[in-house]
Amino acid sequence: MASGPLVGIKVVEFAGLGPGPFAGMLLSDLGAEVIEIAREGTPPPPAIRGDARGRKRICLNLKSPEAVETCLSLIEKADLVFEGNRPGVMERLGLGPDVMLARNPALVYGRMTGWGQSGPLAHAAGHDINYLAITGLLHAIGPAERPVPPLNLGADYGGGSMFLVVGVLSALISAKATGKGQVVDAAMTDCATYLGSLFHNFYTAGAWEDRREANLLDGGAPFYGNYECADGRFVAIGSIEPQFYQLLLEKTGAADRLPHKQMDKKSWPEMREILREVFLTKTRDEWCQIMEGTDVCFAPVLNLAEAREHPHQIERRVFTESGGVVQVAPAPRFSQTPGAIQWAPSDRVWTAEEILSGW
């Protein structure tokens, strides 16, 4: 049974990769009924694809007039639809927003692409690293020697999935109030840039050097970064506020070696080297015994296996099992309408008739 604040909301998802399935998973985990339309002949998602959970899946030959009409029949009763194709693809199939909104004027039509629906790069292929590259943010991430891709969290999921979901749900509130739907153009380049507003604002104000490991939050500050321990593992320190920094000096025993003013950027390289030496004197677990749970702003840098076993993650039930596979549990938490995994990824394919009969 569906559970969550979106129970009763009907969503049509045109199957894609990466940020699209994540958005569909999130909407499903929050209670929406998500129907995924995949192209005919598409193999079922493997069980490891947690982002394929919670949907009913149908396979259609979208070049067939009958299949297009089936899609439009679903759209007539849907609240939201979203797709992640290059600009013009849905229009060529006869499933563009003008056609869909003519059938359902209150429909919210979400479009998620890397470059957006317009602009000189709109029709080019790309991935997270490319979209993030033109925002200025990829340049800011990593050691001084080179930028480092932050997995595909920045553009695909942060700038893609999450902004698409915020956009379509915001438009849905408007549609429920006015009866008028609209198109939501969620371009990862737009949204990832927006996600990095703080750093663009810092740069505009002259408070951000446009090079890596030279600023407060990019590893330049000795009190905000990762340090290797005696066992080769790492800890993360975020002692920005003066009182937290003083506690860091106390817990490390490095106060005598660090008489410098905390925000004296000229001293940061020397301070970082001193802290590097200090953290190498103990193992990660020994530093955990000294600092974890204190106001140092400290945490061990866990690998994926360790993350599942950390006491805080266990008590919060951050991981759960669905279909015999460990998956990340739905988030955020709701006091009255908790979200839930509706069902595990399945190789079942529904027929259009089955869907329409209960839609």
What does it look like?
The protein is of the alpha/beta class. It contains 15 helices and eleven strands. It has helices at 19-29, 65-75, 89-93, 97-103, 128-133, 137-140, 153-178, 188-195, 197-204, 242-252, 268-279, 284-291, 304-307, 311-315, 352-357, and strands spanning 10-14, 33-39, 55-60, 80-83, 108-113, 182-187, 224-228, 234-238, 298-300, 319-322, 325-328. The strands form three sheets. Strands 3-2-1-4-5-6 form a six-stranded parallel β-sheet, with helices on both faces. A hairpin with a 5-residue loop joins β7 (224-228) and β8. α7 packs across α8 (188-195). The protein is elongated and about 75 Å long. The model has no long low-confidence stretch (mean pLDDT 96).
